Amino acid sequence: MSRFSEVKDLILSLEGDFEKFYEKGNQAAGTRVRGGMQALKTLAQEIRTEIQNKKNQSE
Hints:
Blueprint: H1 2-24, H2 27-57
Family: Belongs to the histone H1/H5 family. HCT subfamily.
Protein name: Histone H1
Function: Might have a role analogous to that of eukaryotic histone proteins.
């Protein structure tokens, strides 16, 4: 479950920047959100690969 915690922590770390971008129009916050979303995409792909490998090992 530590991988799930990583996902949650990453999302929560972006919360302030989401607010700054969408509510205040802060462009720099938008850049940070985009970077964070890219990191989330990478993390999600790593988790998907890990799950697939574990699934294939059990067969």
